Amino acid sequence: MEGTAVVIIEPLGDCGLAVEFGDEVNEKVQQKVTAFSKLLSESSIEGIIEFIPSYTTVTIFYNPLYFLDNKQKSPFHGCRQMVQHLLKKIDLKTNYLDDKAVVIPVCYGGEYGPDLEAISKMHNINIDEVINIHSGTIYTVAMIGFAPGFPYLSGLNKQIATPRRTSPRKSVPKGAVGIAGVQTGIYSISSPGGWQIIGRTPITLFDHKKAQPSLLKQGDKVRFERMTETQFKKWGGAKDECSG
Amino acid sequence: MSVQVKHGGLLTTIQDLGRYSYQKYGVVVGGAMDEASHKLANLLVGNEWDAATLEMTLIGPELLFLQDSIFAICGAPFQATVEGDLVPIERPVYVRKGTTLKVGSSKNGCRAYMAFRGGIEAPLILGSRSTYERGGFGGLHGGRLKKDDIIPLKDYNVRDNFEIQKDNFSTTRWFVPSYTKKAVIRVIEGRQYSLFRPESIWHFFTKKYKISLDSDRMGYRLTGEKLTFIKHVELVSEGTAFGTIQVPPDGQPIVLMADRQTTGGYPKLANVISIDLPLLAQQKPGDEIQFQKISLDVAQKLYQEKERSFRKLAFILKELNR
């Protein structure tokens, strides 16, 4: 892989390590994270328990006993060697990011998007324009975290980037679409949270009964599509409101 | 085979060794906070060590046995009585159908694990029976035990599979850490160790940190000398581990525990070594911790020794249970 030299491999506790592909969030780094994650999934390497891809890093959890093989200096060194070997296999000519965007219908504003008006005022852009900007972009799933199935999406237009609420809400309903800084995301389950809520989707992002419980994975592309309240109700979207 | 819950206790949940390979989808690992006690309880009743147990916190439950059963309680020395008689902990105990077990509290430690011969047959969700309260899934109904819950146990014939003698086993004390109020917890350096001021690092290893009341299965919030950074660096979120010690801007460290979120963006000062996690999990709000730094190589050697002796014990107990 080109630029292997800049990849940092550091321990995370005594059963894990972090593989860092860069120190800033951009498409190129995301490509590498996705490519490496794909290799990890496909290779099913013994001794590796699981991994977590994020913005710039892939965190690997391993079984130290497996890497204690006499020739290894230590389990960490053993696992690091395996990672270095795998890094060489990354072919950056292949486009690992999915081109087909998952479409997420969103009912913007009103009771479903209580912070939309404030965002429009803050940036001095009318509400429809905020919606057009938000739904007119193709986002990349930078990582899944915070809650089961919660996607952190990168690619938000800086015109509508807004800091988190000064005080988080006690409850944000499942399906709420929010903005935090230059990120946008979707609450996959109802939970407390400080993101600025601009709308809601009736789509289920996390279902523990499914073998692949999360609708999205790191590297997926996402596009939002405006829907009416009538359509939202027809789709059976969650009724509970933001509170706190 | 089943057991009826008469009273759920303070916080009693069904746990196994956790839900692995779904962290990439944001699903927390969960599982027993004190894995060593969980494993030991299982081994004592002849189970595989990953069978589901009850994790009892501070005050235990009251249970009515609807079948003859064998159980063992390990971890913090909770007071437990069967029909008023004190029952030993860290031993397999045989109880008859219709008997009631009351688990009280413990002077030392925080959590105890109750294994039933055969294991708890809660539904497998994403490969684990562990309860994840925040997500509302796992265990019996996604939450802690409550009155009238029925805990399904795997069917087996007690008399055929187990020789019932009161004092057939006793456990080796060396597996059971003493849950003193002054625990020394060993750590290795975290990814952002060098971002902290040298005097903060010195405070971290010389002063005591108290476990705050806001601590739970997700994380232990510590209070003590404020930790400060050389410079402010805004990090992007990345994977976390059991025992990761992160420091938010208020300078009070948080240790991530079994129900930790999969990713986090605060600087990571250190990571508790795996074999000290059970001891940490037994500390309760108000207890004080002293941190000590060791190297990764030593941590991994200690891990290996502990794991080997645990495996040896598992083998011996399995032979005895044959």
UniProtKB/TrEMBL annotation, chain B:
One of its GO terms (molecular function) is transferase activity. It comes from the Bacteria. Keywords: ATP-binding, Hydrolase, Nucleotide-binding. Residues 24-309 form the Carboxyltransferase domain. The keyword ATP-binding applies. PANTHER family: 5-OXOPROLINASE SUBUNIT C. This is Biotin-dependent carboxyltransferase family protein. It comes from Anaerobacillus isosaccharinicus.
